[in-house]
Design a protein that fits this description.
Elements (H helix, E strand, L loop, with lengths): L2 H7 L23 H23 L6 H8 L3 H7 L3 H26 L4 H18 L1 H8 L8 H23 L6 H25 L3 H16 L39 H16 L7 H8 L3 H7 L3 H20 L3 H4 L2 H18 L1 H8 L7 H19 L9 H20 L10 H13 L1 H12 L1
């Protein structure tokens, strides 16, 4: 056990932490001040990755980082203002490396669209497999610093969206930008699921290889020219990837919309969490904003966090009530998906506070709120695909589609464009329908729904 892992099991920080990097030798070493600073900076980045992998962002301290890096406290603060700045710089370094590696793999491929996509996604997953701690920091640990982390990850995804969109265009297929964003959102969510599973259960290279094939299959579903392209000899491996799970029957949510003081309190906590630092929002502030007494607040909720979770679950119930449309099972499924998604996007546009909560402030409210957001996306996707044809339902596609929808919603709402969500109904419907109907049939279904 390393000294840092021991920190995770004991309340006291050890008096000294053994460095994981070799210090520069004392005396003449031939390096100028700039080279020395660069050497120290890279050791600090590596130490930040190791520290967070061992004890998480919240429990990581500057003392631990400099101990692992083998640098002085002064050297750290000459490079970074605080732990948060160091984390963000480390995040940016990892993201740049990923973008470069995946871009080079894609550009080096001289084959067709599938070959380019396969090369890029295999490079992406190889980075997961060879640098799992860095991957976890980039895709999972970023949530621990609040809304800025997921927002930064979404900005990083733009480079992948551009690369993917250019690959489709080079292959003669121009995809709408929101559809490309949804594809990347599905990949991002499944990467998140894989990393959580890997840390919990020690998944190995076999699972990583399977993930790469699943990513290729997911991406190529959206090729509008798929039926006209010659089928590659090695496509058979991709056809084994869609595990079909048991149908999950989602009961229609009960209308539990609050009224009176409770409604005002729930609205206040969401508004304050969006407008102010979450740590500054307390029972008194919430009660005053709602025009109620603190006693009234405390009769309803044990804490600010309990109040926020209740407010988030209430907005989630409203979305699920829209998604639990019986016509998704009993009617024309394709038309129903388009109609229900349109209703959901109009609801979010009419309630921008809800959309912005999903996109930003939920990440300031802690791990339990983030998990509720993750589950809400899955539940929405489950309801949307419950009536899909061909028996092609299952947990795997729920996650892909959940990631795609939430990526689009979060990008728009997080940029203050919740009112634009209804205009993206066609693209969202395309993302949900295509895995089951194929790209051409999905496009025809959407055209019919708009007729």
């Amino acid at each position: 056990m390393s000294s840092l892992q021991a920190v995770g099991q004991n309340s006291r920080t050890p008096s000294s932490i053994e460095p994981i990097y070799e210090r520069l030798p004392r005396g003449p070493h031939g390096l100028g001040p700039v080279a020395v600073a660069r050497h120290q900076r890279m050791r600090i980045h590596g130490a930040m990755v190791e520290a967070i992998a061992a004890v998480g962002y919240q429990r990581t301290t500057v003392k631990q980082v400099i101990g692992l890096a083998g640098v002085s406290r002064r050297a750290f603060y000459e490079q970074f203002t605080d732990k948060r700045a160091c984390f963000l710089a480390t995040f940016d370094l990892i993201a740049a490396r990923w973008c470069k590696r995946v871009g080079q793999a894609c550009n080096a491929s001289k084959g067709d669209l599938r070959s380019r996509v396969r090369a890029a996604l295999r490079a992406f997953v190889e980075e997961l497999a060879t640098n799992p701690k860095s991957a976890h920091l980039l895709m999972v640990d970023c949530e621990d610093i609040g809304p800025e982390g997921p927002a930064r990850l979404r900005r990083t995804a733009i480079a992948f969206e551009r690369m993917l969109g250019e690959s489709f265009a080079a292959g003669g297929a121009q995809l709408p930008a929101p559809v490309v964003r949804g594809i990347v959102g599905g990949i991002q969510r499944m990467t998140y699921v894989h990393l959580h599973s890997e840390r919990a259960h020690g998944r190995g290279a076999t699972e990583a290889q399977s993930l790469a094939r699943e990513m290729v299959r997911w991406t190529m579903r959206f090729d509008p020219l798929a039926e006209r392209r010659p089928r590659a000899a090695d496509c058979a491996e991709d056809d084994l990837l869609d595990p079909i799970g048991e149908d999950i029957a989602m009961p229609a949510p009960i209308d539990r919309r609050p009224t009176g003081d409770r409604a005002r309190i729930l609205h206040s906590v969401l508004s304050l969490a969006l407008e102010e630092p979450y740590e500054d929002v307390g029972p008194v502030r919430i009660a005053d904003s709602a025009g109620t007494s603190v006693d009234t607040f405390l009769e309803m909720f044990d804490s600010r966090d309990a109040c926020f979770l209740a407010a988030f679950d209430t907005l989630g119930d409203e979305l699920l009530a829209i998604a639990a449309d019986p016509s998704l099972i009993d009617g024309d499924w394709g038309s129903a998906v388009h109609r229900v998604l349109g209703a959901m996007m109009r609801h979010l546009a009419d309630n921008p506070l809800h959309a912005q909560t999903i996109a930003t402030s939920v990440y300031a409210a802690g791990p339990e709120a983030i998990e509720h957001n993750f589950e809400l996306a899955r539940d929405v996707a489950s309801l949307l695909i419950e009536g899909a044809p061909n028996g092609a339902r299952g947990e795997a596609l729920q996650e892909w589609i959940a990631g795609a929808i939430w990526q689009i919603v979060q990008v728009e709402a997080g940029s203050g464009r919740a009112q634009a969500l209804p205009a993206l109904t066609d693209q969202l419907a395309h993302i949900v329908l295509t895995p089951f109907l194929g790209a051409e049939a999905a496009a025809a279904q959407i055209a019919a729904a708009n007729a």
